[in-house]
Specification:
Blueprint: H1 6-35, E1 39-45, H2 64-71, E2 74-80, H3 86-95, H4 129-135, E3 139-145, E4 169-173, H5 191-217, H6 224-246, H7 248-252, E5 255-257, E6 260-263, H8 271-285, E7 291-296, H9 317-339, E8 346-352, E9 361-362, E10 366-367, H10 385-388, E11 389-395, E12 404-406, E13 410-411, H11 415-422, H12 438-441, E14 452-457, E15 460-466, E16 475-482, E17 505-515, H13 534-552, E18 557-558, E19 561-562, H14 570-573, E20 584-585, E21 588-589
Parallel strand pairs: 1-7, 1-8, 2-12, 2-13, 3-4, 3-7
Antiparallel strand pairs: 2-11, 4-5, 5-6, 8-11, 9-10, 14-15, 15-16, 16-17, 18-19, 20-21
Helix pairs in contact: 2-9, 5-6, 8-9
């Protein structure tokens, strides 16, 4: 009989062998896909109102790219910032904890960091989600606004800097975008104090000139020592006024790449394009992942940009033009992720740090702040809904069902535990105030873990939200409310920013009570006659407040005293020359970024 060829004789063996290899390889690939950690792209707008966006009800400004994110992902309708102002809100967002816990809540007039050369900022002892993900093998980057401090004791210690808080790459504004950054826009920083110092300087100058004239003309006997003393006092007053305040564009309006100041003062006109380019570049350099990118936009905080490609296009003034530019930037970011084939393994998130600034207007260009829809109040107005309810959109094709809507209470502080969960970080942590959002986003849970949420105005507990089990109601208790100025107005137009203490607020006894489910605009306070559970609601809220205070431990507030070292006191806020970041030799600081990007 003719023997079989070696090929035919061994084909069953080889077939089995090859099938085994393929199955093993397939199981490895499947395991790799399952175990692969997702990329994270966080996009935060500055001062955006929830009513500014199409998918949240705006039909006067075009936001197709943001709306697309919502249609392809999950939209949160009750997404809450932990504070109605930049610095405390961003501190809570980064740490998953109320700003009070890290000393980033204010005790008086100063509610945000005012000088880049101050010593206040997010303490080195705090932990951000960037640091946790960095420890889990993520490459982390922040492009844009920080506003959580730079130095502590000397120029270059960078104790508050993003690089020290878990971001391996930083490009952008270590401070924020203020009117001082654009000539002719005036100043946002302690304008009344600036005016008082300027008046004092002028008064001393006039007095010195008068004394010199009197002495030279011999009209009266004037001591030379008096003239010298007045001269020195005039020089001191001029220095105290001129150096910190008249040079604010040089001190505050700068761009850094990691620890290096690369532009001082910055050129505002080209900032949007540079931030977008840096964000896209970061993604392209880290396409193999996993990576975390936080794009913290300078829009739509004033001063508003005048980008030629968008000027006059919105039909809604310069604010509308800026908003449509934001939408375009979001579209470019989405296209970058999609074009690199990263969409199915990338969680994209869009939000604002707090609500729109209602009082901000310009006589020439009109309203400069955002619109908060049906919600009462806005930026810097304590616990009123308009200042803390913000857009919240998550997109992750293949993981999150398209077109989802979550009506449960959620918080910007929830990002910290959510990202920890996605990065498979199970290490012990501090007391957190946020909760993992994935069960809600994936439709595996119907209720938020936030039965109670606490709304702070500075370090002062302003309001509490309660979502009772088994009820659609969401009760909101206001212990005090800001005094609007002028009286009867819808905001603090006399000062542009409402304050949280003393004569600037009205305390309520009993507290004001609203049901946000039936009255989201907080226009009809409940009474014992209109709400049978009135006393029970206040009692349940008081118990929750007590339990919350017990979690603060050494961070507890006693009256007006903040036991945790506050980062928002005058001695930490005011400008110190030896802490000022500088490009060149201080005080001759100045440089312009090279047009060709420096790779690091």
């Amino acid at each position: 009989m003719r023997s079989m060829s070696p090929h035919r004789r061994w084909s069953p063996f080889w077939a089995h062998f090859l099938l085994t290899l393929l199955l093993a390889a397939g199981s490895d690939v499947t395991g790799e896909e399952v175990d692969r950690k997702p990329n994270i792209v966080l996009m935060m707008v500055d001062d955006l109102g929830i009513g500014d966006v199409g998918c949240y009800g705006n039909d006067t400004v075009r936001t197709p790219n943001i709306d697309r994110l919502a249609s392809e992902g999950v939209k949160l309708t009750q997404h809450i910032a932990a504070a109605p102002l930049c610095t405390p809100s961003r501190a809570a967002f980064m740490t998953g904890r109320y700003a009070l816990r890290s000393g980033m809540g204010s005790v008086g007039r100063v509610q945000v960091l005012l000088f880049l050369g101050g010593s206040g900022g997010l303490p080195p002892s705090e932990t951000t989600f960037a640091k946790r993900l960095q420890q889990q093998g993520y490459t982390t980057g922040l492009v844009g606004k920080w506003h959580l401090g730079v130095n502590c004791e000397h120029r270059g210690d960078h104790c508050h800097h993003p690089n020290q808080h878990g971001f391996s790459y930083f490009y952008g504004l270590p401070f924020t975008l203020f009117n001082d950054c654009v000539p002719g826009k005036g100043s946002d920083i302690l304008a009344d104090l600036q005016q008082a110092l300027q008046n004092l300087t002028m008064l001393l100058g006039v007095a010195l000139f008068t004394l010199v004239c009197v002495r030279v003309c011999g009209l009266l006997e004037v001591s030379l020592w008096l003239v010298v003393a007045l001269c020195l006092l005039s020089i001191l007053a001029t220095t105290v006024w001129y150096l910190p305040f008249k040079l604010l564009p040089t001190w505050n309006c700068i761009i850094m790449r990691n620890h290096q100041v690369i532009e001082q003062p910055m050129t505002v006109e080209t900032l949007p394009q540079r931030l977008l380019g840096e964000a896209q570049g970061f993604i392209k350099r880290n396409v193999d992942g996993p990576f975390l990118l936080f794009l913290s936009l300078a829009h739509v905080h004033t001063p508003l940009f005048k980008s030629p490609a968008f000027a006059g296009k919105s039909g809604h003034g310069r604010y509308g033009d800026n908003l449509e530019e934001v939408d375009w930037i979001i579209g470019q970011m989405t296209e970058t992720v999609d074009s690199l084939g990263l969409a199915n393994n990338t969680l994209m998130y869009f939000t604002s740090d707090h609500g729109g600034h209602l009082e901000d207007a310009d006589p020439l260009i009109g309203q400069q702040g955002g619109w908060n829809g049906i919600y009462k109040g806005g930026k810097a107005m304590g616990g009123w809904e308009g200042g803390i309810r913000v857009p919240g959109i998550f997109r992750w094709p293949g993981r999150l069902a398209a077109g989802g809507v979550v009506d449960e209470p959620t918080s910007l502080m929830d990002l910290y535990p959510t990202l920890k969960y996605l990065a498979k970080d199970t290490q012990p942590d501090r007391q957190l105030d946020g909760h993992n959002l994935m069960p809600l986003l994936e439709g595996k849970a119907e209720r938020s873990e936030h039965e109670f949420m606490f709304h702070y105005c500075g370090i002062y507990l302003n309001a509490v939200r309660w979502h009772p089990l088994g009820s659609d109601s969401i009760f909101k208790v206001h212990f005090f409310t800001p005094n609007f100025s002028p009286p009867g107005a819808g905001g603090c137009y006399d000062t542009k920013v409402c304050l949280c203490h003393g004569e600037h607020v009205t305390h309520h006894d009993p507290p004001l009570l609203y049901d946000l489910y039936r009255d989201p605009s907080e226009s009809r306070p409940l009474t014992p006659d209109t709400e049978p559970r009135f006393a029970k609601i206040l009692d349940q809220t008081a118990g929750a407040v007590e339990r919350h205070r017990n979690t603060l431990g050494n961070e507890q507030v006693s009256g007006d005293t903040h036991v945790v070292q506050s980062q928002m006191t005058w001695d930490k806020i005011l400008w110190r020359p030896w802490l000022q970041p500088c490009c060149g030799t201080f005080p001759l600081c100045g440089c312009k970024e090279e047009t060709k990007r420096i790779e690091e």
